[in-house]
Amino acid sequence: MYSTTSKNEVVIKLVGKLSLEFPEIDQLRVRAITEEVLYKYDILPQETALVASDIEEKIQIYLATKRLDGLSEKTLKNYNYNLIIFANHLRKPLSTINAMDLRMYLAVRGKNLKASSLNGQISILKSFFSWLHEEEYIPRNPASKLKQTKEPKRLRNPLSEEEIELLRQACDSDREKALLEFLYSTGCRLSEVVSIDTKDINWYEMSLKVIGKGDKQRKVYFSTKAKILLKNYLTSRKDANPALFVASKYPYKRLGGRSVEREIDKIAARANIEKSIYPHIFRHSFATHKLNSGMSLPVLQALMGHENPSTTQIYAQLSQENIKHEYRKIS
């Protein structure tokens, strides 16, 4: 009997195995090719395993629970993808998995990963096994002994105000001007920008509500300059798409994250700035410039949608001039 479930399972397992062997591969492309090759084939499961694994079953229950807890679909997909890779690597009952099994898996999985990416894998395993233990599926939690690896402190390198101005001058179209100014004046994440509809905007207040990480809503604001450029861009459009930013050619689809990255790449190439320019750098620059202009950390934290002020501090850097000025005030 033909089984779509079995075929999907084979595709996921194949992508997972290849990702372990070749970490740099384009996983979505490999999945698309595999699905195309298997399109006309029926796949049936063969129950020949000597050791039964209950990991896949528990993963689905875990994800269903986390969905009810309010985790975003993007986060759930990431959890599912990485836990399926783990399940394919370790074919044994959950109750028999120990800390050494997890360490050996992480040694293989993290071979070519950065410390931050490896810590992401550790966090997923700790969350999964903690849930298994709390729900009494396993007698003990083997992930409780896992420790996060030490990450090198990254010095954020925001754009200077001069670089922002050079990028503004390098914009050609109304859409480029509006997009760049909106990214910089709101400090929004790329995922937030691409999901915005025109109706979301309060033009009088120059504000809008966005849905951030964990499906949490917050209000952000934009500048008068951004308002004028957005109005010019929207007036120039000939489509009825509700999205704030759309493709320049028919059928005028909503701009996705990769399309926005390409737009920023084109602007940066014209500006000829010797620095990596990408959408998220405008969020860093927004935070740094607001902090240096005197905005309080709690207000900046609210605008950026951070639960923890320490996260905001990572994004924002005080200039040495401001540090010196504050020191002189009290000395």
UniProtKB/TrEMBL annotation:
Superkingdom classification of source: Bacteria
Annotated compartments: Cytoplasm
Transmembrane regions listed in the UniProt entry: none
Signal peptide residue numbers: none
Keywords: DNA integration, DNA-binding
PROSITE patterns registered for this protein in UniProt: CB (PS51900), TYR_RECOMBINASE (PS51898)
Major subcellular location class: cytoplasm
Any Pfam family hit: Phage_int_SAM_1
Residue span, Tyr recombinase domain: 154-328
NCBIfam families: recomb_XerA_Arch
Family (UniProt): Belongs to the 'phage' integrase family.
Protein name: Tyrosine-type recombinase/integrase
